[in-house]
Design brief:
Blueprint (H helix, E strand, L loop, with lengths): L6 H18 L4 E8 L2 E7 L11 E8 H5 L7 E7 L3 E3 L11 E9 L2 E2 L3 E5 L1 H4 L7 E7 L2 E7 L17 E8 L8 E6 L3 E4 L7 E10 L4 E2 L6 E4 L6 H37 L7 H8 L78 H11 L10 H20 L12
Antiparallel strand pairs: 1-2, 2-5, 3-4, 3-6, 6-7, 6-8, 9-10, 10-13, 11-12, 11-14, 14-15, 14-16
Helix pairs in contact: 6-7
Length: about 425
């Protein structure tokens, strides 16, 4: 049997294997800070992506430099843990802009780790300065107003709060087709600038740059903005504007007058119509006496209101017309009949009949009928009809007319209904 292996020999072998394994994993290279105002991103490159085995990942940590100097190496803060990307965004960590930090980075592949690569970072010195967030132009007669908005931080704050000495360089030129226009430069620390050495009714272009001389920082220029200046309005333009204004006002006045006339006529025809109601219609509608049948509203306490349980509608009675037949052709104009019944032997029968069972004076047949209708009441089952009453009335009128003309009761009168 072999003697047992000493413990220290095993420890040495483990250390050698770990050291050799770590040496096989390459370190990250080309560490670069990509910054803009308060946005920070660490970028690097690595050759370990071609290594056969587990996929390579990276770990990024940061620590304030004063802590690192004091030996507090156990207070590193991890910003990106085992990320497969070759960049790490440090903006969410909200690093103090005027502070100084130590950054370290290593590669991971399974249980293998590369050495830490350390980089120092000072945001105030290394962070790039961005251009103005917005530039607006506005004409002011022959002048041009330029409004500049400050660059913004990651929390939408102004970079002037971090760079108090920051200023702007304004470059402007006349907008022409030439490739190399004559440019003019103005530096200002205010956000509102007026360009005065300009010509009226001329187009100019403006571009602005942010600058900070302490660390010699300068941003890129903004996209050129172009605007035309104004000036005194020519007299012909004033006259043209005045003419069109007067024309529009005149047309508007005519339309207003037409509308007013139509409204006046409508109101007048409604409340004061030219065609009035007849006098008897007005009297009928204005009659408010209790016995009047004019339409009106009845109040709840009105005594004239009649409440009926049942309503019956009776048709209107129709009166028959009675036509008097013409006199017979055998009557003479004086009312005497040519048929005097002389052939009866001169008995003197002239059509007069005596009353049955009476010795009184003889009555005219027509008058007897009329008198009987006028004086004798109706003994039937139903009362006299309106047609019968009308016939009786007309018989009486005919008898009176005959008596007035002196006609004798010698003829027979026929009535046709």
């Amino acid at each position: 049997m072999y003697p047992p292996t000493p413990v220290y020999v095993l420890v040495c072998l483990w250390w050698l294997s770990a050291t050799c394994g770590q040496a096989e994993l390459a370190e990250p290279m080309n560490l670069t800070m990509i910054t803009m105002n308060t946005q920070y991103m660490l970028s690097w490159s690595h050759d370990g992506h071609q290594t056969i085995g587990p996929k390579v990942s990276f770990t990024v940590q940061y620590l304030a430099k004063y802590k690192w100097t004091n030996g507090a190496h156990d207070q590193w803060v991890t910003a990106c843990d085992k990320t497969p990307d070759t960049c790490c965004d440090l903006t969410p960590r909200k690093l103090y802009f005027l502070g100084l930090y130590m950054l370290r980075l290593r590669a991971n592949s399974g249980r293998l780790h590369s050495k830490w690569v350390i980089k120092e970072f000072c945001p105030d010195k290394e962070a790039a300065l961005g251009p103005p967030s917005k530039v607006d132009l506005a004409p002011a007669g022959p002048l041009l107003d330029v409004k500049i908005s400050d660059p913004l931080t990651s929390t939408n704050g102004s970079m002037k709060e971090l760079h108090a000495q920051m200023y702007y360089r304004v470059v402007y030129w006349e907008h022409t087709d030439t490739r190399n226009p004559d440019t003019k430069i103005v530096d200002t620390r205010v956000n509102m600038l007026t360009l005065s050495d300009l010509q009226a009714w001329t187009s100019y272009c403006v571009s602005v740059q942010s600058r900070y001389d302490f660390y010699n920082k300068s941003s890129a220029f903004t996209t050129p903005h172009c605007m035309q200046t104004e000036g005194a309005v020519p007299w012909w333009q004033v006259m043209l504007i005045f003419f069109f204004s007067g024309l529009v006002g005149f047309v508007g006045l005519l339309l207003l007058l037409c509308f007013g006339v139509n409204c006046y006529r409508t109101v007048k025809d409604t409340f004061y119509p030219s065609v009035q109601l007849p006098a008897h219609f007005e009297a009928y509608l204005s009659d408010l006496s209790p016995g009047s049948d004019a339409p009106r509203l009845l109040t709840p306490d009105s005594e004239s209101e009649l409440i009926c349980d049942r309503l019956s509608i009776c048709p209107e009675a129709v009166l028959l017309e009675i036509h008097m037949s013409p006199l017979p052709s055998d009557l003479e104009p004086d009312g005497r009949s040519v048929h005097s019944r002389q052939e009866s032997g001169g008995s003197g029968d002239s059509g007069v009949y005596s009353t049955e069972g009476s010795s009184g004076p003889r009555q005219h047949s027509g008058s007897g009928l009329s008198s009987a209708c006028a004086k004798e009441p109706w003994h039937g089952e139903s009362p006299a009809l309106p047609e019968q009453v009308k016939m009786e009335h007309m018989g009486l009128k005919h008898e009176a007319a005959a008596a007035h003309r002196g006609l004798r009761d010698e003829g027979i009168m026929d009535m046709g209904v």
